[in-house]
Design a protein that fits this description.
The structure holds 2 protein chains of 2 kinds. By secondary structure, chain A is of the alpha+beta class. Chain A has 6 helices and 18 strands. Chain B is mainly beta. Classes of the chains: A alpha+beta, B mainly beta.
């Protein structure tokens, strides 16, 4: 009589063929339905070389997922127009910026995402949004309260929609409202932007309701249009593994220690700390950036 | 072997007047059932193959096993056969341990058995409190939508009460598109935005393909019925994705409905049916009266533990194995291999051996019957070749009791009774020698009832046989779940068995404590993970 310890033995499943197309191998011990979820995510939100794709897809390579924690919506007036003039939210490597008028650089609030004196936990972030007069917050994740804020996904509410097909109608509702800028292709329908509906008199005249995302034409258009918009409601994600660009200016709050500046006498974050030194050393091992060793 | 729903399709190839086509108890149909059963298994595999690379498929299949390599000392002695093949005897015992629990594993001989055999136990995986499982309703045109965030579910959509499926208007100014669909906008399991179009060809029950965590908008179009969208619900029927039902009037997806019988003890039975018209727009055209659209093909009592009557609350079909799972009100999960019970050969009764040639046939209203009810039959003088001298009609119950139909054409008795033809001497033509009549038979037992009709003419004696089934199905496995007042069950998108009640859901995992000995590779394969396994040669 002998005693054995069984080991995991992978057998082929048709999803492995799908994973091969996406270059996503099923891990040892990964259940088929867990693997299916990962493949589904890759199918709908593909990996790629852009910064946004890299940040969005890094977690799934280790069978981790971005957790949607908050949904931020805009408070509106009686006419259903946003109270914020130009709402904009940006999450950087270490900071959260919430603007109610981004064009004029007017902050609703901002907070550092690390440090006990700041918003170290998502419950702190939640409290800040709750107190805002321009934004509403809804918690999607029941367990958000004790998650560290520093892991909030590097993202913002700047949206860009490329080549949206125009329906053949004099009034075209774009997919997203809160349009910031329009980039039409060269066409006879976008010759002269006017300031109101009554001023549309000739072919080529068009009026844009930037708030609602509606374009009015004199004649029936065709073709496509690209545009920038504010992406609301904004879903904030919490990442088990957070990725952010190394040239992010806000990294100084995590990677720099303060010294007193000679000219101002105030603290200035300029001194590399051990965390950044470790990163630089790792980078230089791979690519020295200098002549010779 | 269970009777395949495919058997009638093959039988339909025979001419309309043949016994082979009309009588499920005939030798021909019993023979055809053998091939149909083999095709059934292949079709189930084919359906799974068709959706193999579909990420939203219903059948996930297996992705792993567990194994250990046997030491030489534990390998049974090989026997080399005269033809050169090698065989090994089975291991004496294989016992697995997981924490404080130990399981005696039984051997299987094929990989398919290891992957798809009946589970040997189930265990509670997790519970979730869900207060509101209704996502959207449209009742008499009034819509209600709940947009709360929930755990991912494949939504269940029920469409009922439609009087009109709007056809596309032919005029130049098109006002009606002719499309019948529900467009659901929401977030999927990964919180990605998803827009799914569920085609609604007719009233019925549908499943969304995506696993929604939020529903942001529901946009129905093309019909006027009431709509309900649930996370889960006990529904009017369950559609078996793997089987088609084929009858005289229609063929289509097999649907199973649970019905409570109104006789003593209120047993439950399954209805096997399929829709006649597949498109609502072909018969729901705004008229007040909607014609009946179900082709009922079989009814079968669904029995509980040890063949007793049970109160069955809900049924569901397993996406991987196509077995039927039922939940009773005592919290038992009962597993069935479904399909009409095949007819057996005729009962052997002295002097009533069926003959190839027959004159008078017995035609029941249906070849299945309800328990403890009367079924009506008709005699049918099918082949008027000779004047009829005499007729005896007997029945043989499932418990082999032989009874003769008596003169009142309602009662049956062990004493013989003979019906005589009219004016038999010098009768000018056969058609006035015999007048067909209806009679009834009380179906007081489960099983196959055989009916024989012996006809004597001036030159020969013929015997016609047919059968009627009071069909029932027994569970092939059962488990108990600790849910005090269960409501229903379903299989979630991860193919876990889920039982629900008023408070939420209970997710169960199935386990199979069996092993496959692959001696040629010195290894033993297991379905489940264990801390350790003890092997005795």
């Amino acid at each position: 009589m002998s005693t054995y310890t069984p080991v995991y033995h992978k057998i082929w499943n048709p999803l492995d063929d799908v994973g091969a197309m996406y270059s996503f191998v099923r891990f040892n011990g990964e259940l088929v339905y867990e693997y299916r979820r990962r493949l589904l995510l890759e199918a709908r939100d593909k990996s790629g070389p852009t910064q946004k794709q890299f940040i969005s897809t890094i977690n799934r390579q280790l069978a981790q997922y971005d957790v949607p924690v908050f949904k931020i919506t805009l408070k509106t007036d009686v006419d259903n127009n946003p109270l914020a003039e130009d709402p904009f939210i940006s999450i950087t490597s270490t900071y959260l910026y919430v603007y109610h008028d981004y064009d004029n650089d007017l902050l609703d609030f901002s907070t550092q995402l690390s440090g006990v004196e700041n918003s170290i936990l998502l419950s702190d972030v939640y409290a800040l949004f709750t107190a805002s007069t321009y934004f509403d917050i809804e918690a999607i994740d029941e367990d958000y309260a004790d998650r560290l804020s520093i892991n909030l996904k590097f993202s913002d509410t700047a949206g860009y929609r490329e080549n949206e097909i125009l329906l053949q109608s004099r009034e075209v509702k774009l997919k997203y409202p809160l349009v910031k800028a329009l980039y039409p292709e060269r066409s006879p329908y976008f010759l002269n932007e006017v300031l109101d509906l009554a001023s549309i008199v000739d072919d080529g005249d068009f009026y844009i309701d930037y708030l609602q995302g509606v374009i009015f034409f004199h004649s029936y258009p065709s073709g496509t249009v690209s545009y920038a918009y504010r992406d609301f409601p904004f879903v904030m994600y919490w990442q088990p593994i957070k990725a952010w660009p190394y040239n992010d200016p806000d990294k100084k709050y995590a990677f720099k220690d303060a010294i007193v500046a000679d000219d101002t006498g105030l603290d200035d974050l300029v001194l590399i700390n051990t965390d950044e030194a470790s990163v630089i050393n790792t980078l230089q091992k791979v690519h020295p950036l200098t002549w010779g060793e | 072997m269970i009777r395949s729903t495919r058997t009638p399709k093959i039988a339909l190839a025979f001419p309309d007047w043949t016994v082979a086509r009309n009588d499920p108890s005939s030798f021909t149909q019993r023979l055809l059932n053998v091939w149909a059963g083999v095709v059934d298994f292949q079709v189930i595999e084919q359906v799974k193959k068709m959706e193999e690379q579909d990420l939203l498929k219903y059948s996930l299949g297996a992705g792993h096993l567990y194994r250990f390599n046997l030491l030489d000392d534990d390998m049974p002695d090989v026997a080399i056969n005269p033809n050169g093949t090698r065989t090994w005897p089975s291991l004496s015992s294989v016992t697995a341990t997981n924490g404080d629990d130990s399981y005696s594993l039984t051997e299987v001989t094929t990989l398919e058995e290891l992957l798809y055999n009946l589970p040997t136990r189930i265990a509670l995986l997790e519970t979730q409190t869900i207060t509101d499982r209704t996502i959207y309703t449209r009742v008499s045109g009034v819509e209600t939508l709940t947009t709360i965030h929930q755990l991912p579910h494949r939504l269940k959509i029920e469409v009922t009460g439609s009087t009109n499926y709007y056809k596309q208007t032919a005029s130049r100014n098109v006002t009606v598109s002719g499309l019948h669909r529900i467009i659901i906008t929401g977030r999927d399991i990964n919180y990605q935005s998803v827009v799914e179009t569920v085609e609604i060809p007719d009233d019925g029950i549908y499943l969304a393909r995506n696993f929604f965590t939020e529903v942001e908008a529901v946009d129905p179009t093309g019909f006027d019925g009431d709509i309900s969208i649930y996370l889960y619900n006990v529904s009017d029927y369950v559609e078996d994705r793997y089987r088609i039902a084929i009858g005289d009037y229609a063929q289509g997806p097999l649907r199973l409905r649970l019905v409570e019988d109104d006789i003593e003890d209120n047993p439950y039975y399954l209805q096997y049916f399929t829709p006649i018209e597949k498109l609502g727009e072909s018969y729901r055209d705004g008229q007040d009266e909607i014609p009946e659209n179900e082709d009922l093909q079989w009814e079968q009592y669904i029995l509980g533990l040890e063949g007793t009557f049970a109160t069955i609350l809900d049924i569901a079909v397993h996406p991987d194995t196509a077995r039927l799972y039922a939940l009773d009100d005592s919290g038992n999960i009962l597993i069935y291999d479904i399909g009409p019970t095949p007819f057996g050969p005729p009962a052997v009764v002295a002097d009533f051996t069926p003959t190839l040639a027959t004159y008078i046939e017995l035609d029941p209203l249906s070849h299945w019957a309800h328990y403890a009810t009367d079924l009506q039959f008709f005699t049918v003088f099918k082949r008027m070749r000779l004047p009829i001298h005499s007729v005896q009609i007997i029945r043989v119950s499932p418990s082999a009791v032989v009874e003769y139909l008596q003169s009142d054409k309602v009662s049956w008795d062990v004493s013989s009774y003979t019906f005589y033809g009219e004016d038999i001497d010098g009768a000018p033509s056969p058609d006035i020698s015999w007048k067909d009549f209806p009679f009834t038979s009380s179906m007081s037992e489960f099983g196959q009832w055989s009916y024989f009709c012996k006809v004597q003419t001036s030159i020969d004696t013929t015997v016609f046989h047919t059968a009627v089934m009071v069909d029932s199905i027994l569970p092939v496995a059962h488990f108990s779940v600790a849910v005090a007042i269960p409501w229903g069950l379903f299989f979630d998108h991860n193919n876990h068995l889920v039982v629900f009640d008023s408070d939420g859901i209970y997710v169960y995992q199935e386990f199979l404590d069996q092993y496959l000995a692959d001696f040629s590779n010195h290894q033993v394969l297991l379905k489940e993970s264990y801390d350790s396994v003890e092997v005795t040669k």
